Amino acid sequence: MSEWPLPESFAGELGTVRWNRLGAPGGRPLVLLHGTPFSSYVWRAVARSLARDHQVFVWDMPGYGRSEKYPGQDVSLAAQGRLFARLLEHWGIENPLVAAHDFGGAVALRAHLLHGVRYRALALVDPVALAPWGSPFFRLVREHAEVFEQLPPPLHRALVREYVGSTGGPGLHPGVLDRLVDPWLGESGQPAFYRQIAQADQRYTDEMQGRYAGIEVPTLVCWGEDDAWIPAARGRELAGIVPGARWEPIAHAGHLVQEDAPAELTAALLDFFRGLS
């Protein structure tokens, strides 16, 4: 993916993390977190736009995208939350603006609520946050991950492609779909895909869900109105729990709002971040 380079690396306890920084070094730091089964690639258009006013940090979580993948790797929400806290220390940034999607939303929430990481503001985009979560397909694969991992590569590729393409909204461009599927192929990618699903345990959100009402950081909750994975009603519920949270539904967008409505999402994020006192 030469059009989306991640030239920097951080050697953490979960493996090597690939990352990049966009925008002027003096800009306000803004960190973007991707979800599953995606990578920072989904943020590319939004990140480049935000980099006009901010110093934007993008990264692929361990076990995802171009970051390291290996057998036995811990890619759980608990591990990713701890890793994110250490990565912020490595970057030397405090109180960043944070925008987090899907699984990345849970990672950002865990780092804040359980590890004491402070944010200037938090934007949650279709996050995994409220129980119950996980589609019937997701639960089936989680319960039988070792069986699915043995699929012949062509069948595995077809399964991942169909799954990634089921997010709702207008649908993904075939070229984009190829790029989202590619990290999950091959000798390291195929087992990594089932590994991250096998470790997706709802207890990691259950143990912090009761703390959402105590969030004091300015919070924006964005949601694709046509999200086929997590209904928009869950987003409205989350916005009602977090004190003072701003609710921003985005029309004609599915779960991958960054792909379906990048201009609308960028506008919502800029309006929110620029409105901070």
Automatic annotation (TrEMBL):
It comes from Streptomyces olivaceus. The keyword Hydrolase applies. Keywords: Hydrolase. This is Alpha/beta hydrolase. Signal peptide: none annotated. The keyword Hydrolase applies. Residues 29-262 form the AB hydrolase-1 domain. InterPro entries: AB_hydrolase_1, AB_hydrolase_fold, Carboxylesterase_BioH, Epox_hydrolase-like. SUPFAM superfamilies: alpha/beta-Hydrolases. One of its GO terms (molecular function) is hydrolase activity. It holds the Pfam family Abhydrolase_1.
